[in-house]
Amino acid sequence: MSVLVVGSLALDSIETPFGSVKDAVGGSATYISAAASYFVNPVRLVGVVGGDFPADGVKFLENRNVDLEGLEVIREGKTFRWAGRYHYDLNERDTLYTDLNVFEAFDPKIPEKFRKTRNICLGNIDPVLQRKVLLQMENPRIVVCDTMNYWINGKRAELEETLKMINILILNDSEARLLAKEPNLFKAAKVIRGMGPSIIIIKKGEHGALLVTEQIVFSAPAYPMENIFDPTGAGDSFAGGSSGGLHGPRISLRRI
Amino acid sequence: MSVLVVGSLALDSIETPFGSVKDAVGGSATYISAAASYFVNPVRLVGVVGGDFPADGVKFLENRNVDLEGLEVIREGKTFRWAGRYHYDLNERDTLYTDLNVFEAFDPKIPEKFRKTRNICLGNIDPVLQRKVLLQMENPRIVVCDTMNYWINGKRAELEETLKMINILILNDSEARLLAKEPNLFKAAKVIRGMGPSIIIIKKGEHGALLVTEQIVFSAPAYPMENIFDPTGAGDSFAGGSSGGLHGPRISLRRI
After folding, report:
1. What is the pTM of this model?
2. Which of A112-126, A216-230, B40-54, B239-253 has the lowest mean pLDDT?
3. What number is the ipTM of this complex?
4. CB contact under 8 A, A224 and B186
5. What is the Cα Rg of chain A in Å?
6. Which residues of A touch B186 (CB under 8 A)?
7. How far are the Cα atoms of B4, B75, B110, B134, B143 from residue B243, in angstroms, in the given order?
8. With helix as H, strand as E and coil as C, how does chain A read?
9. CB of B127 within 8 A of CB of B134?
10. Interface test with chain A among B173, B186, B207, by most A beta carbons within 10 Å
């Protein structure tokens, strides 16, 4: 059993009240793949980087048995870059800059041998690209999809088209309220289920996550953490772990 | 098995975005007793009301088998009154007025037949009064105590004395941070355990509650609610249900 991951590979520059880092390997596809690799083997990655993507970033993924046949390397281009600054309340951050670089013209091409992958995790990228990926896949079993306020506000119509093609949507509480235009999370999940996905997972940071289906509401607490330095990639890692866990050998789809 | 409840009996006037009510029977002792009555029998109440406390408020408690021998009625006095207005976010409220009335001179006297009650739930009142209650009890088995920011800010030294005499402290997340002077809830719980109570229960509203002991952190989700009209008394009811549940016949102290 494998899982296909599509998303960004990035070089992140991050400031928190506790320290800072420059050009650290990141991006949704990186975090999702790393987390999913604890549950499924192999993880198949589709993404794009520039000639400046560090060799140890590639090594990191290879060591986790991530199949990089779908990783496009544009030698003369530069990797997607994001910079952000977190506040003392690590739930709040400001984006300092976003340089799309090679990601601007990203047109995901699924390698032939990846197209029959049954389980798909679509990282938080343009819903048009998410749909392009799905249109190349042959009969997927389950599609997990992440999104964010940027696409909900800026590309709602495109996002709604994509939602019709997926099974599980993962988003955070404020994004769920925004997408559904409904402040109550349980009502919001119902509204979003009406848009397509039969299962909604609402992330609530330190308060854990809710899984909502037609029949059930399941609340999972967050692991208790006494020291938190940098939450970058936490949502992606959660999506990757969830996708990997769902798709792994120990869990049957009949259970959900 | 019975539980002794000490707290306020009040007439609450409440405005929410969804409606309003005037002089509704409320107060911490009322809510705690009603909730505890689902688990233990009888509940023993200690509190004070004025001659204006309505007969149906008394009836409400009697119907739940609450023993009112400890209810002092000051015929010529007026019952404690509180008025508040909730915002659209029901987690936020403004106090419009507080009239202590007969509560101002409240000096809890525990009836002789109540003094051997093994299980005690101290509602959210002045920590000096909470301690006066405990000093009249004979060898209690377990003492649950509620408090709030008003006492943490205004009577910290008195509260700290009371904390040395209790087993379980119930408070909400912002109160835990305030009392411990520590933003991380798990670290805050450790700090508060150092003040006396071996078990800390931190309420997080719609996000449920955390129980923290030396060995464990247990996270309980909140019951999923699609429509919320008025959260007044929710924390008191939670304290009453927890006290009753802990003290009921089905749960042994050895389990915690």
Report:
1. 0.88
2. B239-253
3. 0.81
4. yes
5. 17
6. 224-226
7. 10, 31, 19, 16, 9
8. CCEEEECCCEEEEEEECCEEEEEEEECHHHHHHHHHCCCCCCEEEEEEEECCCCHHHHHHHHHCCEEEEEEEEECCCCCEEEEEEECCCCCCEEEEEEECHHHHHCCCCCCHHHCCCCEEEECCCCHHHHHHHHHHCCCCCEEEEECCHHHHHHCHHHHHHHHCCCCEEEEEHHHHHHHHCCCCHHHHHHHHHCCCCCEEEEECHHHCEEEECCCCEEEECCCCCCCCCCCCCHHHHHHHHHHHHHHCCCCCHHHC
9. no
10. B207
Residues in A closer than 8 angstroms to B217, CB to CB, are 224
Token duo for residue B120? 């005690």
What residues in A contact B222, CB-CB < 8 Å? 219
**B224: exposed, middle or buried (Cβ count in 10 Å: 0-12, 13-18, 19+):** middle
Distance, CA of B161 to CA of B30 (rounded, Å) = 26
CB contact under 8 A, A186 and B225: yes
Per-residue pLDDT for chain B (256 aa), expressed as one digit of tens each?
Answer: 799 999 999 999 999 998 999 999 999 999 999 999 999 999 999 999 999 999 999 999 999 999 999 999 999 999 999 999 998 878 788 999 999 999 999 999 999 999 999 999 999 999 999 999 999 999 999 999 999 999 999 999 999 999 999 999 999 999 999 999 999 999 999 999 999 999 999 999 999 999 999 999 999 999 999 998 899 999 999 999 999 988 655 444 444 4
CA–CA separation, B77 vs B92, rounded Å? 31
**Phi and psi (nearest 5°) for A197?**
-65, 135
Give Cβ neighbours of residue A178 (< 8 Å, ≥ 6 apart): A149, A152, A153
- Single-letter amino acid code for the residue at A21: V
Crossing angle between the packed helical segments A28-36 and A55-63, to the nearest 10 degrees: 30
The angle subtended at Cα B161 by Cα B159 and Cα B165, nearest 5°, is 105
Note the pLDDT of residue B246: 84
CB contact under 8 A, A184 and B221: no
For residues A250 and A82, what is the distance between their CA atoms, to the nearest angstrom?
36
Print the SS3 string covering chain B.
Answer: CCEEEECCCEEEEEEECCEEEEEEEECHHHHHHHHHCCCCCCEEEEEEEECCCCHHHHHHHHHCCEEEEEEEEECCCCCEEEEEEECCCCCCEEEEEEECHHHHHCCCCCCHHHCCCCEEEECCCCHHHHHHHHHHCCCCCEEEEECCHHHHHHCHHHHHHHHCCCCEEEEEHHHHHHHHCCCCHHHHHHHHHCCCCCEEEEECHHHCEEEECCCCEEEECCCCCCCCCCCCCHHHHHHHHHHHHHHCCCCCHHHC
CA gap A63, A40 in Å, rounded:
14
